[in-house]
Amino acid sequence: MKSVIDEFLTYQRKVGDRTKLYQMIAEQFQVKRALYPGSHIDVSPSLVIPHVIYIDNFKGAISFFKHKEDICEYLEEKKIYQEPLSLDFYGENYYDEFDLEPVDLIISQYAGFVGQATRQYLKKGGILLSNDSHGDATLAYHDKEYEFIGVVNEKNEFITEGLDAYFKLAKNRVDLDEVRKSMKLPNYQKRAQNYVFRKI
To answer: Which of 1, 26, 61, 101 has the highest Cβ tally under 10 A?
Structure first.
């Protein structure tokens, strides 16, 4: 029978290991507490961030996190920080309401409009790390509660220069209603692997 750790490692090989991405963001912004809505079984943030809250109502994720003891044992062995490991999981829809203390970071990876649905849990000055697979970064860019402060390239480098080149169309304006409806991002001239926003 496949162990829960094998399941995670197989998933990680399939989607790519994002640990270095999370580590760079954690170090850049002194992240100690993160929220990962729509996480599926990607527990790699817990390797580099002491307290991570995972939310996912997918039955595969719920089944995976039932083995929390085994998961935490593996993470304790591999984590790079000195603080105690803290991992919470909610097997619910991230649009539901949760009684959460403010977090330093929200992670949005291929899971819909995470930055919109959960921004109330992000502290002022906190960071949203988002790709634009479903248009979540596009919505954050046009959201007055977020400030666009950088991008992350394929080498997991944080770039703060030339940001004016992003979220620009060859012509026409971005139709946010269409983005929300179709979850397809507009045809931008320049794109990044991930986008970084600060809550203001």
So the answer is: 26
